[in-house]
Request: fold
Amino acid sequence: MKTYVYPKSQALFERATKVIPGGIYGHLGPSNGCFIPVSAYPFYLSRAEGAYMFDIDGNKFIDYMCAYGPNILGYNHPEVDAAAAAQQKLSDVTTLPGSKMVELAELLVDTVDSADWAFFAKNGGDVTSLAVMTARAATGRKKIIKFKGGYHGVAPWTQAYGNPGILQEDVMEVITIPFNDLEALSLAVDANPGQIAGVIATPYHHPALADNALPEEGFWQGVRDLCTEEGIVLIIDDVRCGFRLSVNGSDAYYGFEADLICFCKGLANGYNISALCGKEEFKGAVSSVFYTGSYWLSAVPMAAALKTIELLKEMDGPAIMRRLGLRLTKGLEEAAQKKGFNLRVTGEPSMWNMRLTDDESGILHQKWVSECVRRGVFFCNHHNLFINTAMTDKDIDFTIEVAEEAFDVLKREGR
Ligand SMILES: Cc1ncc(COP(=O)(O)O)c(C=O)c1O
Reply:
């Protein structure tokens, strides 16, 4: 199998470092340490289509990062793009919102079990912060409980004291406890009587750089009961899982009901929109919060979201992604075993996390992932991966073939 090289990506990155901080900023940048060895990875794309992306050197990849989640139906989905283009002809960013906004809120209320209303913004972090402000407005309390390793965006309250730019005041009302630990939750609530405004959590635990964890039996029911007893707002951050596990909300998928639920990545197949949904009793509180943005009423992403949700419901997108994810993860585990390695798969099959456990340092895993990337299977080594509905069994077969060859490289090079 031919292995890829990236001279054009590398040259463009050189140019970028002169005019863009870090060349590519955030966790997507090669200087961030997520892409090791850096020489195995492309940096810039020329185009993307369905399950694939094509870099500027002309290499084709099956993209298992799916833009970190938004690519749920396949890049450039013709029906979603047609709905967006039709709306673009009518209006997008305008003085008053378009009618699509009401239609989308109605569709979310009809589709998501815990939604009685919807409020739209752009990024996931916009709505996790709005959820926290709403919980504080509703309860008149200050403190928020979150779970260690859970990611809710980049707003100061989500970060750690000591991170550049973060003040102690930004985080002093935030308590962090381990996921799946009902006792720690009870202790935190008891230690702060009448002071906890909200608990925010992802539906299952999908931290970066660590094994993922599904909710243990009784965990969510215990959290729900405690929040109800104590008048604490239960916020589910469904930014990453939303519409991949269930179109009805990941709280419904795990058999409980959130008070507030945050959506973003799977909502509009890459068009730029997020939504906070919630129960009727929080409608007054969310309306009282001063919160808006220049592009938050734009109609094109709303038209795209309407079509994306309609298609996901029609085809039962979550079932398709689960089936493909199960086939792939089983195939990868078997490939590892066949070649004498141990691959640990955690999380949900449609957004699985994996790690070679033969070497706890992670270096072997990085090497295996990089050998897959060089052969056209874009995995990453620090984060969960994603399935989308455009992927096929043929893609899965090819991926397993590549994975086996990458294991052979590890063996040849003495692990
Ligand atoms: C669970 C979760 N919450 C919040 C966010 C923040 O979303 P955004 O980067 O769109 O602000 C992310 C992004 O990865 C996420 O995965």
Summary: Residues 68, 123-125, 128, 151-153, 202, 237, 239-240, 264 surround pyridoxal-5'-phosphate (CB under 6 Å).
